[in-house]
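User: Reviewer 2 asked us to show a designed sequence for the structure in our supplementary figure. I'm pasting the structure tokens here. Could you produce the per-position amino acids so we can include them in the response letter?
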């Protein structure tokens, strides 16, 4: 047995004579005596210990075979996967006037019509359900709750079609929360919608400054009231979008959530996303986890700080694990209000990045999206490859004008991963 190529070793201050091991391939973490690690390097290990460490991904029979498995990960994953995640953009309209709206010129009174919704259902049935692939569909916008009639149509029809084939069909939603009353939440639950992600941008003053209604009125109190009405009916997660200037104030929001009764047991998670712009392009905060903003110097400090503040108060947070970019996932698609197909929400409306339409189907996007972007010796020899796979294509696009080329994350992981791992271990020990 050999030490994995994708093994990181960090000091363990709480346990002298021990190391903190982390696998970038499996995301497993363990505290192991330094002597055991030294024995592993010499190939001396008991069968019981070796079996455990192999299961965690720290030991492998053949490092070359392990590297080949990492290189072929998406090929094998896509061959075995029997689930498709679809983001259905029901409209490009919104009742808020967020100061950082990433939709830019796309925003407006553009709605999916009934004909397109029925075509979407037919497309998903023929492309996925008929082939034995279950569906996870997220309603998105704009504000998806402005298209409640389409949510009813799509959810009802897909649930019927999936059930007839013995498959599952689950639904989620990204919403600004202003229309998510208890009554609406009850109906969504009856339609099979489970998870809803809602945005709160800090305390009342900060949130209302960044996310007012179109009229200019603040939206904070309306959203909090709706969350209290709906959090026991749906699996609610909150995403807090922050800037370099205001992130230190967000613990006050966490305290407020506890005070009003939006406690950890009533929320799935509280996560944080930096609001950032690269060049002239704003990143969609809902989808920038693992994306371009992480290479900005201030993001490392803010993410660790806010994640720890949420953990200190008992809230769930996003797990430390390799991100799976939907560009690499063969089944996953974004369907726009007018029936165009994309491989990433941030690509919507960008010239040359549509991958088909509901009428035509999916075209070959291997070259246009550079699916081989990370297939080079530098990436193959990097221990962070399973956590990166060439980085974010959007980041590369807006920085250089083209997707070609790697958006390297080595500096980010070198600066932050050890602290994330220590944070995970400390939180795990606290729970025990």
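Assistant: Here is a per-position design you can include in the supplement:
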């Amino acid at each position: 047995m050999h030490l994995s190529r994708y093994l990181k070793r960090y000091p363990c201050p709480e346990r002298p004579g021990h190391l903190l091991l982390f696998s970038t391939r499996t995301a497993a973490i363990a505290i192991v005596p330094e002597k055991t690690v030294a024995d592993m390097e010499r190939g001396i290990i008991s069968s019981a210990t070796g079996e455990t460490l192999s299961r965690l991904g720290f030991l492998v029979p053949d490092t070359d075979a392990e590297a080949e498995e990492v290189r072929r990960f998406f090929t094998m994953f896509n061959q075995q996967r029997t689930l498709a995640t679809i983001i259905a953009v029901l409209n490009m309209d919104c009742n808020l006037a967020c100061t950082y709206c990433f939709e830019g010129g796309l925003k407006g009174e553009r709605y999916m019509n009934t004909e397109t919704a029925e075509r979407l259902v037919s497309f998903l049935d023929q492309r996925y359900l008929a082939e034995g692939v279950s569906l996870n569909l997220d309603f998105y916008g704009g504000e998806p709750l402005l298209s409640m009639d389409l949510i009813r149509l799509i959810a009802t029809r897909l649930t019927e079609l999936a059930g007839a084939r013995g498959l599952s069909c689950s639904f989620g939603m990204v919403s600004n929360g202003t229309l998510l009353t208890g009554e609406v939440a009850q109906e969504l639950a009856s339609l099979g919608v489970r998870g809803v992600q809602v945005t709160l941008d800090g305390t009342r003053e900060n949130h209302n400054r960044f996310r007012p209604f179109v009229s200019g009125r603040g939206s904070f109190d309306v959203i909090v009231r709706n969350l209290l009405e709906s959090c026991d009916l749906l699996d609610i997660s909150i995403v807090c979008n922050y800037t370099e200037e205001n992130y230190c104030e967000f613990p006050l929001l966490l305290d407020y959530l506890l005070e009003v009764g939006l406690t950890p047991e009533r929320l799935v998670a509280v996560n944080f996303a930096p609001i950032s712009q690269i060049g002239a392009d704003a990143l969609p905060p809902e989808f920038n986890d693992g994306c371009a903003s992480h290479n900005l110097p201030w993001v490392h400090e803010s993410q660790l700080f806010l994640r720890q503040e949420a953990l200190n108060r008992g809230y769930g947070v996003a797990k430390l694990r390799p991100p799976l970019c939907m560009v690499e996932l063969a089944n996953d698609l974004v369907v726009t209000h007018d029936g165009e197909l994309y491989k990433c929400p941030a690509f919507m409306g960008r010239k040359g990045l549509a991958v088909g339409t509901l009428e035509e189907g999916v075209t070959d996007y291997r070259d246009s999206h550079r699916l081989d972007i990370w297939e080079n010796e530098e990436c193959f020899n990097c221990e962070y490859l399973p956590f990166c796979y060439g980085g974010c294509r959007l980041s590369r696009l807006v920085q250089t004008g083209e997707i070609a080329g790697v958006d390297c994350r080595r500096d980010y992981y070198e600066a932050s991963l050890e602290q994330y791992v220590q944070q995970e271990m400390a939180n795990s020990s606290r729970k025990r």
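For the response letter, you might also mention the following. Residues 278-282 have pLDDT under 50 and may be disordered. Residues 264 and 315 are 5 Å apart (CA to CA).
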